[in-house]
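hey m, so remember when u said the tokens were messed up on ur end? i reran from scratch. heres the input so u can diff it against urs
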Amino acid sequence: MARSLKKGPYVDEKLLEKIKKLKQGGKEIIKTWSRRCTIAPEMLGFTFGVHNGKDFLEVRVDENMVGHRLGEFSPTTKFHRHGGKIQKEIETKVAEKETEKIKSSKTESASGGRR
């Protein structure tokens, strides 16, 4: 849901105070739990440690991120993979092809490399 235009974007005051204390482009990581905070132009060049529920993920703010929320760049879930029998078959075929390439490259290097 978009925030009302008359209210303006939500920017955490404590976060802005931390930004004012640091210099732009520094290597310091600003830790924050405020995932709902909108990225303002004053935040450009800073690195934020955005909490995803378990640990802090580093987010370096660029020009393209202005107007978005900090939480958008710190995913809370981890994608494992789509499963099933067919997917396992595909993965085993790919693994077999890779092992064949490795074996063929080893035999060529052992025989002196034919040309």
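this time it looks ok to me. The chain has a mean pLDDT of 86. if urs says something different then somethings off w ur setup not the seq
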